[in-house]
Amino acid sequence: MAESLPTEFDVVIIGTGLPESILAAACSRTGQRVLHIDSRSYYGGNWASFSFSGLLSWVKEYQQDSDIEEESTVSRQGLIPETEEAIALRKKDETIQHIEVFCYASQDQDTEDNVEEIGALQRNPSSVASTTITELDSACLPEERQSYFTDYEMPANHTQKSDKEISLGITDVEESLEKEKDCGDNTCIHTILGGHKDEDKHTVEDNTGQAKKNRITFSHIVKEGRRFNIDLVSKLLYSQGLLIDLLIKSNVSRYAEFKNVTRILAFREGKVEQVPCSRADVFNSKELTMVEKRMLMKFLTFCLDYEQHPDEYQGFRQCSFSEYLKTKKLTPNLQHFILHSIAMTESSCTIIDGLKATKKFLQCLGRFGNTPFLFPVYGQGEIPQCFCRMCAVFGGIYCLRHKIQCFVVDKESGRCKAIIDHFGQRINAKYFIVEDSYLSEETCSNVHYKQISRAVLITDQSVLKADSDQQISILLVPPAEPGACAVRVTELCSSTMTCMKDTYLVHLTCSSSKTAREDLESVVNKLFTPYAETETNKEEPTKPRLLWALYFNMRDSSGISRSSYNGLPSNVYVCSGPDGGLGNEHAVKQAETLFQEIFPSEEFCPPPPNPEDIIFDGDDKQPEVPGTNNIIMATIDSSEESKNLESPEKHLPH
Amino acid sequence: MSMEDYDFLFKIVLIGNAGVGKTCLVRRFTQGLFPPGQGATIGVDFMIKTVEINGEKVKLQIWDTAGQERFRSITQSYYRSANALILTYDITCEESFRCLPEWLREIEQYASNKVITVLVGNKIDLAERREVSQQRAEEFSEAQDMYYLETSAKESDNVEKLFLDLACRLISEARQNTLVNNVSSPLPGEGKSISYLTCCNFN
After folding, report:
1. In 3-state terms, what secondary structure has residue B73?
2. CB atoms within 10 A of CB A130
3. Domains: count for chain B
4. pTM, to two decimals
5. Which range marks the domain in which residue B99 is found?
6. Which chain B residues contact residue A631 at CB under 8 A?
7. CATH code at B60?
8. Enclosing H/E stretch for A435
């Protein structure tokens, strides 16, 4: 590294997940000197999203983790005086388990390239060694820029969709992605296949004689790997939720763009159907009878201000929400919709929780669109980075790939004084915020974690075909047997910039009872069919076909109370990893709570000055003597119009 | 929606090693200032300058790295939706030139393929300390299919030219695009920024 880190800060933050990133922005916004570091080569920790090759590298990293030798750490001797002691941090991340990868898409086209691929893999170590840039980044990068423009034939049916791009929000020039979609690069493939012999055994063999038309092969996916932004956590933003409010309030929203979730789906009697949820949807629904429409509207209207009508539910306090719905003269159809798709609760949930959830759903409807949810373009992984950008704009210093050995604690006061990094450098600060996966086994010996089961699928069709193939859908699949967990399914189309054209990215999430595959495979089989199987079948497949699947378990540390950690100094604050919930409320609440604990008198993420309103001291005079001031002082000229920040929206249709 | 008094708005993003003069280029162009000895850029997210080109108002939104380049930790979202990238090195610093391929890799991965990239060798006022010859840079930029220009933020050499040429190119690209996709109005439900303005209410 060309430069070494400064050594004096107010706040050191370890981990770049969502709560840590929000905190970083909040602290830096109040003028604190913030150092924000992550041992990984990417932002977001378990909140990250990856390109396809990036995800494969991530898988590989976890699979190899066990045989990586302990890094030789620089001795701490001499760095810590007698009056201080060290609390070691964990060296390896242990939050991910039971990773399983299945490739259903044909790999036949790849065989000829294989020799070259392995060779290409050999090439990599030297280039990695010579640069601090991570192998994750370089893995899917072209060697030569020109090769980018080599022609690559795509299935024939994609051309008419080229106008589907995202409006940039800040420009009226539509940025066409048409070209990008057609460009492939051979180097992409190489690193990946070489490293993935493990998965190859799962590969379902494909008949080479099949018609190639319209087929998506594994090499297509690899070539278009950059088109994927695959989130490790699957979440959505409630349009009246805490995260949206914070994004807007702090103006961090200017770094991201969002799309509305377009459909709420239900899975009932083996069939996927669309749930009508807005007033217009209900009235336009073809599935519902006139009577049902009235019943549903009546019930939903009641839920919006259920607190005002306690007599409607007081008598049922002992019932579960599902039992209560039965008493409301709702048809089974409607009961299912409300319970699983609108309230999105388990059958056993209490009546008040059910009403609360229904009300929240209804309140979020219509703020930005027809469903209560938004999804960030390029994936959820963008969000922590947006907060990091805000932190950096206010002077926060960023350093990825930076490992920390330990906290240094003053024996007398019991307070943490510093951290020591993998170079043996001591970095002093007043407050320390750490993501819990960095805490050592010793610190966490009394902690019991929950687990989240996750699946990531690449499929060739939507679970429910519609006029437009660009749908973002959420579906809750109720448990097959009582006591099991409902599975949340999110299906993303290519215009969310999370998957390549003609594919869908499907995320499954539930709280774990077994390994992710054991928890989720039955739902995957209900909704999808493996790619190869249907190829021999002459009939038009009714289910979308699976091209690729990944299962893993992620640790859910969201419920852990601070007191369960052993021996942490009082000025070390702990953030948890992602929770299994649909929204981001937990992370935002945690960040705000910790911020207020640390800086009780400061405002949490106030709006920054409008860039267009900033005038610089010295604008009208010659700059000061060199070296007198290293900081550009910004002041706000309030006389200027203050609406310009909103200019991006001005190009949007309403 | 028609209140904005510009015909085009473009997002231009600067990248390159720390200390090559990115912020100086932006400040020179947007404010006509050259701040010596200036280190970090606090609280400034992007700078705006509206220029007129052939009678059309072009608003340039110019984004700086916010210091995240110092330890090679630029967020991906920084590159998203940029219309143009200015890849900057310091002609008196070989190292800043040698790092260009690394920056190009980041561009490849995170920026749109449509992005226009300009290579800028800054600090030509320090010609006596030059370490990177013009010819090398030209060859490199040609090989990478980039425009190339040498500037001095201090002497204000080529700074206007850099941004104005870029604006011209962006306009002609934009024109071509609107011709190609004649229906340029975004479809409902396409990516949007959120703010209080975009809200509508239930019912």
Report:
1. coil
2. 9
3. 1
4. 0.81
5. 6-174
6. 39-40, 42
7. 3.40.50.300
8. strand A431-435
